[in-house]
C-alpha cells in the first residue's frame, strides 16, 4: 500500500469539502446572471466568501477568488507593483518560485528587485528589512512568506509588516503554506495582501484566493467581466469556492489539536530519519511553534536527494526533495542556497511532510522503508 508523505505539495481532500463540492456542482447558473438560477449560484459563491473570510480573519469583501495560489501570488506581486507605479520590489531569499518568477517578469517593465538576505533558518530579520527600506526610498512592495514551504520555518509576519508600514510600504504575505497549519489571520497580519490556496488545506485543486484590503494597491491582470471587485475577471466556480471554504473552516476549527497530533508524528519520523541516515541534518527552525507542524526537511551529506526520493517511492512512500513547482528540474534548492547551505549538502535534500490524514501507520511505513536507501548512502 502506497503511503503519501508529500502534503506540502497538496494535501488529501477532506470528506466534508468533497461532499460540499459534489452537491454544489450539480447546480446550474452563472453567479453573474440576474435570473433565479444565476442568483442561486451567487448565493453559494457568497456563502463561500463569508465562510472563508471567517476562517481567514478578514471581511467577505476582502476575499478575491482565483484559480489557485499561483494566480493569487501573481495578482498580488505583479498587480501590486503596477498599482504603485513602479519602483523597487523587495524580495527575501528563499521565496516560492511563483513569487520569484513574477518579480523577475516585472523587470521587463522596469522593476528593480532588491534581494534581502535571510538567516540560516530561512527567516527575514526585521532589522535587515529596516536597513533595506532606509536605503530604498522608492520601495513599492514587500513580498514575504508567512512560512517557508520547503523547510517549514515560520516567519514573524507582524514584526515585518510593522517595519514596512512605518516606511509606507505595502506588504504581500504568501500564506499558502501557513494557512490552516499555524495561526494565520489577515486582520492581525498588518499586510494589505495575502495569498491562500485550497489544495493546501484539504480542498480541491483549481481554486485559491487573494485577501485584499479595501485600500490595497492592486491592478487586475485579467480583463473582462469585472468580477471579484473588478480585480479578477472570469466566471468563478461556486462549487470550488464552497469546497475551499469548507476545507478552510474545518482546518481552522481543528488547527491547534491537529498541530499537536501531526507534530508528534513528525517528531517520531524525524528521530527515525536522523538515526537511519548518517549525515542527515534537519534544516529550518527546530521543532516547536516556529516550525510548520507537519514539515520534516533534512539534507543528507554525500547523497543525492532525487535518488533518495526514487528509492523511497519504490518502497511505496511518496516524499519530495522540495517544492513541487520545481519537480523534475535538475537544480539545487534556491531556499537552501539562500540559507547558506553548501551546494554539496543541498544536493542531498529530502522533504517529508505530513497532513490532516497522516497516521502512525504512515510513519511506520516510512521508517520501515528507510533501509531501502542503503545503496545510495553506502556510496
UniProtKB/TrEMBL annotation:
Catalytic activity: (sulfur carrier)-H + L-cysteine = (sulfur carrier)-SH + L-alanine
Pfam families per UniProt: Aminotran_5 (PF00266)
Taxonomy, superkingdom: Bacteria
Signal peptide: none
Swiss-Prot/TrEMBL cofactor(s): pyridoxal 5'-phosphate
Alphabetical list of Gene3D superfamilies matching this protein: 1.10.260.50, Aspartate Aminotransferase, domain 1 (3.90.1150.10), Type I PLP-dependent aspartate aminotransferase-like (Major domain) (3.40.640.10)
Aminotransferase class V domain span: 3-366
Annotated family: Belongs to the class-V pyridoxal-phosphate-dependent aminotransferase family. NifS/IscS subfamily.
PANTHER family: CYSTEINE DESULFURASE, CYSTEINE DESULFURYLASE FAMILY MEMBER
Record protein name field: Cysteine desulfurase family protein
UniProt organism field: Amnibacterium soli
Taxonomic lineage of the native organism: Bacteria, Bacillati, Actinomycetota, Actinomycetes, Micrococcales
Amino acid at each position: 500500500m502506497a503511503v503519501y508523505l508529500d502534503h506540502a505539495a497538496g494535501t488529501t481532500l477532506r470528506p466534508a469539502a468533497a461532499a460540499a463540492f459534489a452537491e454544489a456542482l450539480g447546480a446550474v447558473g452563472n453567479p453573474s446572471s440576474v435570473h433565479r438560477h444565476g442568483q442561486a449560484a451567487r448565493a453559494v459563491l457568497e456563502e463561500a466568501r463569508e465562510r472563508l473570510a471567517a476562517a481567514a480573519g478578514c471581511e467577505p469583501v476582502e476575499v478575491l477568488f482565483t484559480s489557485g495560489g499561483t494566480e493569487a501570488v501573481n495578482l498580488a506581486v505583479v498587480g501590486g507593483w503596477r498599482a504603485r507605479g513602479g519602483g523597487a520590489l523587495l524580495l527575501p531569499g528563499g521565496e516560492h518560485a511563483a513569487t520569484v518568477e513574477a518579480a523577475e517578469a516585472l523587470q521587463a517593465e522596469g522593476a528593480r528587485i532588491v534581494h534581502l538576505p535571510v538567516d540560516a533558518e530561512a527567516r527575514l530579520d526585521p532589522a535587515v528589512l529596516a536597513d533595506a527600506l532606509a536605503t530604498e526610498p522608492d520601495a513599492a512592495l514587500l513580498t514575504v512568506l508567512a512560512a517557508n514551504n520547503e523547510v517549514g520555518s515560520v516567519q514573524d509576519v507582524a514584526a515585518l509588516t510593522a517595519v514596512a508600514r512605518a516606511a509606507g510600504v505595502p506588504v504581500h504575505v504568501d500564506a499558502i503554506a501557513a494557512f490552516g497549519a499555524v495561526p494565520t489571520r489577515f486582520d492581525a497580519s498588518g499586510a494589505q495582501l495575502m495569498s491562500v490556496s485550497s489544495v493546501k488545506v484539504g480542498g480541491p485543486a483549481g481554486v485559491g484566493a487573494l485577501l485584499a484590503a479595501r485600500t490595497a494597491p492592486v491592478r487586475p491582470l485579467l480583463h473582462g467581466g469585472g468580477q471579484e471587485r473588478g480585480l479578477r475577471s472570469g466566471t468563478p466556480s461556486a462549487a470550488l469556492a464552497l469546497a475551499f471554504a469548507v476545507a478552510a473552516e474545518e482546518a481552522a476549527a481543528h488547527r491547534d489539536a491537529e498541530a499537536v497530533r501531526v507534530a508528534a508524528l513528525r517528531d517520531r519520523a524525524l528521530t527515525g530519519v536522523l538515526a537511519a541516515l548518517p549525515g542527515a541534518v534537519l534544516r529550518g527552525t527546530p521543532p516547536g511553534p516556529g516550525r510548520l507542524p507537519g514539515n520534516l526537511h533534512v539534507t543528507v551529506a554525500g547523497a543525492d536527494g532525487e535518488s533518495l526520493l526514487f528509492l523511497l517511492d519504490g518502497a511505496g512512500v511518496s516524499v519530495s526533495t522540495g517544492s513541487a513547482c520545481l519537480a523534475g528540474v535538475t537544480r539545487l534548492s534556491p531556499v537552501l542556497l539562500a540559507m547558506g547551505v553548501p551546494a554539496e549538502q543541498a544536493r542531498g535534500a529530502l522533504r517529508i511532510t505530513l497532513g490532516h490524514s497522516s497516521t502512525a501507520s504512515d510513519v511506520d511505513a516510512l521508517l520501515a522503508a528507510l533501509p531501502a536507501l542503503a545503496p545510495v548512502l553506502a556510496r
